[in-house]
Design goal:
By secondary structure, the chain is of the alpha+beta class. About 35% of the residues lie in helices and about 15% in strands. The protein has two domains: about 90 residues, Orthogonal Bundle (Cytochrome Bc1 Complex, Chain D, domain 2), CATH 1.10.760; about 110 residues, Chalcone isomerase (3-Layer(bba) Sandwich), CATH 3.50.70.20. The chain is built from ten helices and five strands.
Length: about 240
């Protein structure tokens, strides 16, 4: 083979670009909410990513993106990653010590703030809210009642994006009494510091007990769950709200 033909072959061969670990670390911040800053997960039901083979991680992320593997949270997050993101994030997690040994980036937990709720229980509930949905089970006296405040209701009726000040509250009933609440609220600044892969505009989420005190929970899961609903202001049931007379 001549030198010229070798050069021609080289020019025709696609170049495989090395993954960028720095970009992978940057993009991984959203993942760290569940998988931990050092790739060691924050709870037993979530897998560790540190030290996993890059090709394996890439295969799993690609499967979530394509819908070949199903998980509501992972599918929502993976859908927002492009090919380069998948390569970089997979390589980054693979580069970390499998045992979760401390390294330069693990001295702090950048995901800690968006695991938390930024919401307090609305003082105006239920006085300034309208019920838009209800479920019930007569056998065990359980069910739920869904409420929306008038700011959000007005926007939904006018087919406008729900503005800051919008609040939705769901009462969960057990044995005929309110046992807990699930809620979401949009306020200016609530979305600050949340990675784009998880950011739901300026919405935050909260679970409250029967005494209306916020529960400890990884609220990044709520962000991931609502991510696919960007076109409906991140709200499940927006059509039901808009249909209220």
């Amino acid at each position: 083979m001549t030198a010229c033909s070798m050069l021609g072959l080289a020019a025709a061969t696609p170049q495989v670009l090395a993954a960028d670990l720095a970009l992978g670390q940057q993009k991984s911040v959203g993942c760290q909410a569940c998988h931990g800053a050092s790739g060691i997960s924050v709870s037993a039901e979530i897998p560790n990513l540190a030290g996993q083979k890059s090709a394996y991680l890439k295969t799993q992320l690609t499967a979530f993106r394509k819908g070949d593997r199903k998980n509501d949270l992972m599918s929502a997050v993976a859908a927002l990653l492009n090919d380069a993101d998948v390569d970089n994030v997979s390589a980054y997690w693979s580069s970390l010590p499998a045992g979760g040994a401390a390294d330069a980036h693990a001295a702090f937990d950048p995901a800690a703030e968006f695991r938390k709720s930024r919401m307090t229980f609305p003082a105006s509930f239920p006085r300034e809210f309208v019920k838009y949905a209800q479920t019930s089970n007569a056998t065990d006296k359980s069910g739920s009642r869904s409420y929306v405040n008038r700011v959000a209701l007005t926007a939904a009726r006018e087919k406008e994006p729900l503005p800051h000040g919008s609040i939705i509250v769901v009462e969960n009933v057990a044995d005929g009494a309110v046992a807990s609440y699930a809620a979401m609220e949009s306020r200016a600044g609530f979305g600050d510091g949340i990675p784009e892969v998880l950011k739901n505009g300026d919405w935050t989420y909260a679970l409250f007990d029967g005494k209306r005190e916020v529960r400890e929970f990884n609220y990044a899961k709520c962000l991931a769950c609502h991510t696919p609903k960007a076109s409906t202001s991140y709200v499940f049931g927006l059509a039901e709200i808009a249909a209220m007379k």
